[in-house]
Amino acid sequence: MAKTLLVFYSRKGKTKTVAEETSKLLNCDLEEIIDLKKRTGILGFLGAGRDAFLKKKTSIKEPEKNPGEYNLLIIASPVWAGNLPPAIRTYIERFQAQLPQLALIGTCGFKGNSSKIAVEIEKITGKKLIATVEVTAKEVSENNYKDKIQDFVNNLKPIM
Ligand SMILES: Cc1cc2nc3c(=O)[nH]c(=O)nc-3n(C[C@H](O)[C@H](O)[C@H](O)COP(=O)(O)O)c2cc1C
Fold first, then answer.
1. CA 97 to ligand 1 centroid distance, Å
2. CATH number where 135 lies
């Protein structure tokens, strides 16, 4: 059976909630990407938007798992300023040469915005995402996202 790793970055917990739910359904490995730069408070928020917009990288805690040892990497990421959070950009570029097939769970404030990070991931990696799903922060707050995640998981199952 193909091995799957789900990595996520989450500042406020919405992406974490969705990532944990998905990894339970897939029974796959899960790893949190930790940004070592402080992103809390109003200054943290403003810096986060600026750094994402400028496509900056950051320092991340050294990941324990190597995506090169998996057949599928699912990236769960929020949209920041229409772009990737620096921690996700850093992770992708760090493992660029070893990335397996990719899928995306994009979380965002406004519907449709996860397509922006999908395009960016495909551009950086040169790989086509094999599956994507978008969940809004409101859908997570209202616990109204599980059907979407089930569909996403069902789409992935045949290749696992
Ligand atoms: C700095 C920053 C910039 C954001 N920019 C966008 C954006 O451009 N478009 C959007 O739809 N949501 C945007 N959001 C909302 C987040 O994508 C959304 O709330 C997401 O679910 C947060 O995930 P988290 O709780 O895992 O941190 C932004 C949030 C932050 C903190």
1. 28
2. 3.40.50.360
pLDDT by residue (tens digit) across 94-105?
999 999 999 999
Ligand 1: does its nearest atom lie under 6 Å from the Cβ of 107? yes
Q: φ and ψ at 28, to 5 degrees?
A: -115, 170
CA of 108 to the centre of ligand 1 (A): 5
Provide mean pLDDT across the span 65-83. Answer: 98
* Number of folded domains that form the chain: 1
Domain housing 113: 4-159
**Which residue's structure tokens are 């069902």?**
154
